[in-house]
Write a structure and sequence with these properties.
Blueprint (H helix, E strand, L loop, with lengths): L6 H8 L11 E6 L3 E2 L3 E9 L7 E2 L3 E5 L5 E3 L3 E3 L4 E6 L4 E8 L3 E8 L2 E5 L18 E2 L10 E16 L14 E5 L6 E2 L4 E7 L2 E2 L4 E5 L6 E4 L5 E4 L5 E9 L18 E12 L1
Parallel strand pairs: 2-13, 11-12, 13-22, 15-22
Antiparallel strand pairs: 1-3, 3-4, 3-8, 5-6, 5-9, 7-8, 9-13, 10-11, 10-13, 14-16, 16-17, 16-20, 18-19, 18-21, 21-22
Length: 280
């Protein structure tokens, strides 16, 4: 049985006082156990500045794909300030795909002095941030000129993880052919340090060449990998642990820039996140 090593810390952190979501927050879903013998799996869904330590609960459409390949909605969810907890029934042995499709987010941007800044709603008390406008990646409506031009960008996000009860199986791994997703060479419930992880990056069922992906472990800098001409990626690991893989399509080098963008945002972008465990 593989117990998520961050579970105990994460669960305690979820009980603490909530904080607002900042630009640096990373959304994820994470099971308490990646491998289990139980009849239910509990999943936490949150956004965080400290990977896998919940800061702000997130919601959306939760679904589960069973070992038989059947997809169904998950309705047993409890929303707390810093985390959403979801319980997934595990009736049969095999590998389950748990997916969170977040509601598409429409953001507005404007160009101020050569930097593209996101436009946030005004604060309830009408106050301005302590940081100067030049030191942050966003602006408030009161800081915009009367002739400011706004550009909209719609972001679609999919978060996934896999839980295996008993022996692993492969039907739940079948790509849907929609949006940004991964086609795994091997079962993502069986990742080992000496073997690594191989997959193809797909968009609407077609391989995405040169797609950039990031893989991060708590407390360490992300590792950036690039898919080959066939969309194939092979990731290697130096130690066991829990990891988060992220990708944005089309490639966007400025997606994590907290101090504004040099280029305007894409009209539509697609984000994918996968939490997984690597065993020794």
């Amino acid at each position: 049985m593989t117990l998520s090593p961050v579970y105990k810390t994460s669960f305690l952190a979820a009980m603490l006082f909530s904080s607002s979501v900042a630009l640096a927050h990373t959304p994820y879903i994470l099971p308490f156990h990646f491998d289990t013998k139980k009849d239910v799996a509990t999943i936490q869904a949150s956004a965080t500045e400290d990977l896998f330590i919940p800061d702000h609960g997130i919601t959306g459409d939760f679904t589960v794909t069973s070992p038989a390949g059947t997809k169904s909605s998950i309705t047993d969810a409890t929303s707390l300030k810093e985390v959403t907890l979801v319980q997934v029934p595990l009736a049969d042995n095999g590998t389950y795909r748990i997916t969170l499709n977040a509601k598409p987010r429409v953001s507005k941007y404007t160009n101020i002095n050569g930097r593209w800044l996101s436009v946030r709603p005004a604060r309830p008390d009408g106050s301005l941030p302590k940081e100067a406008l030049s030191d942050r990646g966003y602006a408030l409506p009161s800081e915009l000129s009367k002739d400011a031009k706004l550009v909209e960008s719609t972001s679609t996000r999919t978060l996934e993880t896999f839980v295996t009860k008993g022996a692993s199986s492969d039907k739940a791994l079948t790509p849907t052919g929609k949006g940004l997703e991964l086609k795994f060479t091997d079962n993502p419930s069986e990742i080992y340090v000496d073997k690594g992880l191989e997959f193809d990056v797909l968009f609407d069922g077609k391989p995405v060449k040169n797609q950039v992906v990031q893989i991060e472990q708590p407390g360490k800098a992300p590792i950036e990998l690039t898919a080959d001409e066939k969309g194939h990626v092979k990731a290697t690991f130096t130690q066991a642990g829990t990891y988060l893989l992220e990708a944005t399509y089309p490639n966007d080098p400025e997606s994590h820039n907290e101090n504004g963008r040099k280029t305007p945002p894409k009209a539509n972008s697609y984000n994918y996140g996968l939490s997984f465990s690597v065993s020794q």
